[in-house]
Amino acid sequence: MAIAALVALALVGLALAVLLYRKFANALYYGAKIGGPRGYPLIGNALLFLYKSPPDFFLAIEKTIREAGRCFRLWLGPELLVIVTDAKVAEGILSSPKYIEKSGEYDFMRPWLGEGLLTSSGRKWHSHRKIITPTFHFKILEQFVEIFDHQSDVFVEQLRAQAASGQAFDVFPLVTLYALDVICESAMGTKINAQIHSDSEYVKAVKEITCIIHIRTYDVMARYNSLFNLSPYRRQQDKVLKVLHGYTNSVIQSRRRDLVENNQKSQQDRDREAELGIRRKVAFLDMLLQTTVDGRPLTDVEIREEVDTFMFEGHDTTTSAISFLMYRLARHPEVQRKVYEEIVAVIGAERDTPVTLAMLNELHYLELVVKETLRLYPSVPFYGRKILENCEIEGRTFPAGANVIIMPFFMGRDSEYFEDPQEFRPERFAVETSAEKTNPYRYIPFSAGPRNCIGQKFAMAEIKNVISKVLRHFELLAPDHFGPSCDMIGIPFHLRPPPGRTLHSLVRTIASTKPADLSGTQDKNTRQKINFHELKHPSKVPQRPNKSTIDGQSTPTRIPVDTQTVQLLERLSLVDLDSAEAHRTLEAKK
Ligand code: HEM
Q1: 357 touches ligand 1 (CB under 6 Å)
Q2: Which atom of ligand 1 is nearest the CA belonging to 116?
Q3: Residue 573 maps to which CATH number?
Q4: How many domains in the chain?
Q5: ipTM
Q6: Residue 373's domain spans which residues?
Q7: Is the pTM of this model over 0.90?
Q8: Of 181, 194, 189, which is closest to residue 251 (Cα–Cα)?
């Protein structure tokens, strides 16, 4: 009896081993050929990502790139990841219509976005991409510029309010609210007035779900559903999803009713409205309501997925770009001066001149500055594809099931791709010497190929608009103590996350407290500041004072901006693949 049981057990064990071998042999074999850091049995390289904050995650990857090169494999338990920072390999994947399936990381967005444009694949993605592309036509963009213009006026008022308080604050949360206002009005045609009512249920829900997505992306403990479902994040997610989906659904219903009413209007009514100058702005949602796929209209769920996708992709990315751009302008007064002069030449110095798309397209130098900012701080620092069948790219076999993670963050800092990558030099993108043109796949903050960013023209116009407005009102200044040595500032120990929480969530928590509460949360010496100097004479083309003149003034209007978030990420900006010295210093700081 005992022997029979032992034999049965051995057979089950053998069957299991064969099953596991059949499931993983292919990936193990080709994964080993790609090469990567040594891992442990069963967990692989998961320890590299345990309780990791975003900066620590990036430092770990950067260290591995040094050791293993621009393309290497990692095992996260049973998951095979292939990290790619090689432009040729990235080109092989991004340019091909075969590799459009998204990697496992996108599952963290699915509870909110469902199968929208960012997360879907196959036939659904193809047909939706086709119908959504025309919504970014320049004629439609033109009407969105009105929204940017109005919302950036509100943004300027928020900055002015901070100037009056004189309290330290982080620019990032204010930019988030501005970007949310813009995308909500453009995508749904409704005003949430996030900049004024930042504590509204919908605004808070967007912030919370974005935070949960980030936590799941960076921290291996929140990555797997089995662990995530046991955590408080899961309950929090269920709660905010009700708010998010509820809001989008109600807007869809109301816009449907409006559309029916509008269609019932007689030609006479329409002519009268046209005479009175009543022009209804068409939101992205309206276009979806009127479109058809394979001869049928989109369902409410399909529309909701696309609108929510825009809400996410259209605010998180531009927020990061605008925040880092403001930070860089403050650090490079000569660049800021050139941007300002261009704005005055194209739009004029008057603060309330309405901006048009044609004017924004004329801001060529500002465009170079945006591109340079995205080289160093790509809003989407990595994105992934799932390989469905074994395939060969640039001499390597990528096994079926592998998640390929392409990292523009490191490509933008690679000295083989960009000369002196650590230098902020917008001119490198000038047409004659354009870094983009030498090999377009070295510079991919908007991705490339069939699944590139559909909203990049919208984003560029939005960023240019808000910067042109801010610089007509304020000068961004870096205070004297803010020199190169400050670059090495690490995260003060007491701001490190307790186990189980990522630093990112902590930063978000701090950022969402009132500015006044911030002052006590960190050591004075570790605070970096950007000041805004308000221009006094808007009606004349103002001669911008240089820094020493400003310092000489008795009471300039200044807003000390606490760049907690920038500080966190500035640490990453030092991850220059070229500079072993910088790396050693960072390691020592840790
Ligand atoms: C600085 C701003 C932005 C950056 C850097 C950026 C970057 C990207 C990147 C890298 C992707 C590819 C992601 C992937 O392959 O998984 C992407 C896709 C996408 N982006 Fe953007 N984005 C920006 C702004 C926007 C805006 C403003 C919108 C909408 C108004 C938008 C809508 C989308 C959508 C819908 C996709 C999915 C496209 C598809 O898969 O067919 N993005 N974006």
Answers
A1: no
A2: 35
A3: 1.10.630.10
A4: 1
A5: 0.99
A6: 129-589
A7: no
A8: 189
